[in-house]
Design a protein that fits this description.
Elements (H helix, E strand, L loop, with lengths): L21 E7 L16 E15 L2 E6 L2 E5 L5 E4 L6 E8 L8 H12 L6 E5 L3 H15 L6 H19 L11 H16 L6 H7 L4 H11 L4 H19 L4 H7 L5 H12 L3 H9 L5
Helix pairs in contact: 2-3, 4-5, 4-6, 5-6, 8-9
């Protein structure tokens, strides 16, 4: 369940098949640090089907509770992540499907794909097995996982995607009027990009806010609303995450790594690392050398 991100917070999707834009996985929320996936977006459609347990799911700052026999459809290019404040387990299926799989011709794209992709009033749809057509979407999502390794799996998945899209097309109300672009998300992406590009230098809250051309108060409000972190908290987390690659792939000392990712001292880095990962940087490095993943 590793999620790799680009500087603009978009996900580097690792598709299940080399030649088809399809990603299918079975996940546990506990596989993410602190039971929270990183905030991200992608051009793919995302489908989540909860098998057991529950999780909170944030889409563009709106938080929903997903329980067993529920799930969610997340439209393309929406900022989202799943998490559990109480660190409770959630067992789920996650499927990413690129809309190009539905575009057999320009007419299909124009008449049936873009009306949903560009529907700004439908960034997501919570799904429940108590509603028949939504139940069918969740069951198709689960079935895609079961058949993912069959020889004709890409063809069967594309067929299932078409069935799902038909149900979405027939049940999601069309956008009635144009809606202004959410400038808050654009501002947030600019500030996140600044952090990721400058994490190894001294960064202040004023610097982060300036990257989004907003005041420090609004900067903090946007991070709190969409990411559930302070700007400095996000910066620290990003530095720690970058340091894990250096621990695994280099022979740099702990102090050298601390300075390389932007920490002022090795001792503060080690203390902060232990709080996030539950072990010291040295212990983390040793576990990776021994092939331990968690």
């Amino acid at each position: 369940m590793l999620i790799e991100l680009n500087d603009d917070r978009s996900e580097k999707v690792r598709y299940h098949y080399p030649d088809y834009p399809i990603y299918i996985s079975h996940g546990l929320l506990s596989s993410y640090p602190n039971y929270a996936a990183p905030v991200h977006w992608h051009d793919d459609i995302e489908l989540i089907a909860v098998l057991s347990g529950e999780m909170q799911y944030n889409v563009n700052g709106k938080v929903l509770l997903l329980k067993e026999n529920e799930g969610i459809f997340v439209n393309a290019r929406q900022l989202h992540f799943g998490f559990s404040d109480e660190k409770e387990e959630c067992d789920f299926i996650c499927v990413l499907l690129h809309p190009i799989l539905l575009c057999a011709s320009e007419a299909y794209e124009r008449d049936f794909v873009l009306p949903i992709i560009r529907n700004q009033t439908a960034p997501y749809l919570k799904l429940s097995k108590k509603i028949l057509w939504q139940k069918e979407i969740l069951e198709e999502t689960e079935r895609m996982y079961l058949i993912r390794d069959e020889k004709a799996a890409p063809l069967k998945v594309q067929s299932a995607f078409l069935d799902i899209w038909l149900r979405l097309y027939e049940n999601i109300p069309p956008e009635v009027r144009p809606k202004l672009q959410n400038t808050d998300l654009s501002i947030l992406k600019n500030m996140i990009s600044y952090i990721r590009q400058n994490h190894n230098t001294r960064i202040t809250l004023a610097d982060i806010a300036a990257a989004g051309a907003v005041g420090q108060s609004k900067c903090c409000k946007l991070f709190a609303k969409y990411i559930y972190q302070t700007p400095n908290g996000y910066l620290t987390q990003y530095r720690l995450d970058k340091s894990t690659a250096l621990l695994k792939d280099t022979d740099m000392s702990i102090t050298e790594i601390a300075h390389a990712v932007g920490f002022g001292s090795g001792s503060y880095y080690a203390e902060t690392f232990r709080v996030r990962f539950g072990k010291s940087p040295s212990a983390y490095r040793k576990s990776k050398e021994n092939g331990v993943t968690r």
